[in-house]
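Lab notebook, bench 4. Still working through the backlog of constructs that have no structural model yet. Next entry is a single chain of 690 residues. Request: give me the C-alpha cells for it.
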Amino acid sequence: MHTLITGGAGFVGSHLADALLAAGDRVTILDDLSTGRRENLKGALSTERCRLVVGTVRDEEVLEPLVGACDRVFHLAAAVGVSLIVDRPVHTVETNVYGSEVVLRAAMRHAKPMLLASSSEIYGKSTSIPFCEDDDVLYGNTTLSRWSYAVSKSTSEFLALAHYRTSGLAVVIARLFNTVGPRQSGTYGMVVPRFVESALRDEPLRVFGDGEQVRCFADVADVVRALIGLMDEPAAFGRVFNVGADVPISIEQLARRVIALTGSGSEIERVPYDEAYAPGFEDMRVRQPSLERIREAIGYEPSLTLDDTLRRIVAWKRDATASVSEPPESPPMADEQPAEASKRAPTLSVVVPVYNSHRELKRCLGGLAASTYDDFDVLVVDDGSIDPVAPLVEKYGFRCLRIAGPKGPGRARNHGVREVRGESVVFVDADVCVHPDTLALIAETLANHPECAAVVGTYDNAPEDPGFVSQYKNLFHHYMHRRWSGPINTFWAGCGAIRREVFLEHGGFDEERYQRPKIEDIELGLRLAAGRRRVLLDERVQGTHLKRWTLWTMVKTDVFDRGIPWMELMLESGRIEDTLNVSWLQRASVAAVYLMLVSLLAAPWIPGMWLVAVALAVVLLALNFDLYRYLARCRGVVFAIRAVPLHWFYFLYCGVSVVAAVLIRMRGRAQSQQAHDDGGRVPVSGEPPA
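Model written out:
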C-alpha cells in the first residue's frame, strides 16, 4: 500500500507515518515545513520506503502527481494552533479551505480514498455535552478571528461530504480532539508541551482565564490507530467521527498534574485571555467528545491514560534537552586535531547584506539557523545601518561585518565574499527566509552539476504579506522562475549561490555602477554567460519573501531599478535573448497591450476599433492563460481575475521602460558625439594641424 500524507512532517502526521511504515506501507509526505519539522521524520526518512516532498497542498501542480501515484490519502495539512489562528487569520482560512478543496478535487479525479482531518473546534460554543457528531454548532461573531478556524474546518467538511454525495468520493472525516504526545511543540499555543517545558525549567505554568475550562486529552498513538482504522473500514466513508479521549480534566488540574509528575517547583500563574491572545477572545468552556459512533464502527477505545501520556512527554522532553545540552563524551583536544581539519573551509558560506531591516533580518537569520544542512557559515554584512545589527546576528551565533555605507548590496556582497572561506557562496537577501532544506538543495545541486558555476532559486508561493499586490508580485516571480527551470543567462542574488573562485575570477558585482539595489545580480549573470559559465535555475531552492509591496513600490522597482537598467544592458550588448521575464511571450504581450490601447483611443473616431481592442484582449488572455490558471489554483478565481488588469499594467510600464532606455542611450550617444565634435576632433592623415 502506498499512502500519501499531507502535513506529514507535523506532530500527528509524523506519528501516522511511523505507524504506516511499521505496517509495511510506502509513504510519501507532502509538507511545506511551515509548522512541521523535518526533525519529526528522522526515523521515517531513514527508510527507503518514505520520502518527503517540500511543497504546499495549495499547489495543484505538486499535489496532482502525488495523489495519482498513491493508493490513499490522509489529508492532515492545516493551519494549527490558537496563536497562529489569531495572528494569521487569512493564512488560516486560505490554507484550510482552499488546501482541502485542492486535495479533494485531486482525490476525486484519481478515485483515491481519503481521510480528512477536521477538528473539535467545529462544535464552537455548543453547550450540548458531550459533543455528538450530529449536534448543531454555535460560533461567535465574524469580527472575532478566533472562530475563523472553526468555520474553515466546517467548510472543508461540507466540501468533503458534497464530493461524497455527488461523485461518490470515498472520504471519511475525523474530528480530532486534543491530541498530545512526544514531538508536539508549544510554539503555537498547545497547552501540554507548554506546561511540561515550563515545569522542567521550574518556571510558572501560565493558565489562561480562570483555569476551569475542561478538555479531554488523547495520546497520539491512540489517535493514529483510530485514523488508520477509519480508513480501513469501508462503512466509515461518507461519515463524520469524533476521535480522541473522553475523560475530562480542567486546565488548572492539568497544570497541577504536570507539576506533580515532573517534581517541579513551578507555580501556577493566571493570565487573562485578553493578554494571552487579543481583546474579546472567546474560548470553549468544555470540549468533551462522545465516542459512541467510532466505538461502534471500528471498536475504538483509548488505551493510554493521561498520566501515561504525560510521562511519555516528560521523558521525551528530558531526552531532547539532554541531547542538546550535554557535550559529547571525551571530546578531542584542539591540539589533537589534524591541521587540515581545524582549517577546513565549509562547503557553503552564506552572505547576507543588510541595511535597516531589523524585523526581516530576524526572520532571515531564524530561517538559516533552522537549516537541516550543517556544513555552512553565515556572514551578515551591515551596510551602515542605523539599526543595531551586530547584537541580533551574534544572538544566532553568526558573524557580522560592518562597513561604511550605505553603498548598495553589491558592494556589501563583495566585501562578504572576500571575508568568507566557503567553496561556494550563497547570497540571501535580508528580507528572505529560506526553507529548512534550501541550503541542502543548493549543496546537492552544485555537487551533482560540477559543470555549473552557479545555481539560483525562487521565492516560494506563500509570501508573508497578505496584501493583494504583495501576493501577486511574489506569485508572478515564483511562476516565472518555476516555468523556466534549467540553464539561464542571468543571476539572482535574492537566494542564489556561486562557486567562490568563479565569483572572484569575474570580479564580483559591479559596485561602482550599482550603488543602490538594482540589477547588479543580473549584470553579473550576463558576464558569467559571456564567459561561457553555466547558471542553473533549480525551482526546489526556495525562500519566503518578507517584503511588503505596494503599487507604487512595484512600479518604481520594475521601471527604474529593473526595467530601464536591464534594457540598457541589452542595448549595450546588442543581444536580446529569451530568459525569465524577457521572452517572446512577454514582448508579444507588451505589443498587444499597446495596440489595444491605441485601438481604444481610436475607437470613438474609427468604426470597428472596439472589435480590434476586444480581439487583442482575447489574444492577451490566451498568451498568458497559463499564468492566470496558476494564480487561480494558488489563490482562487477571484484573485486571478483581479490580477489580470494589474498584469496588463505591468506590460504597459514594461514598454515605458524600453522606450526610456532607448531615449537615454540615444541622448548619451548624442552627448558623446557633441563632446567629440567640440573638443576631441582628430585630424585625418595629411591634414595640417589647426
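Notes after review: The first helix runs from residue 11 to 22. Residues 394 and 663 are 48 Å apart (CA to CA). Flag for follow-up if needed.
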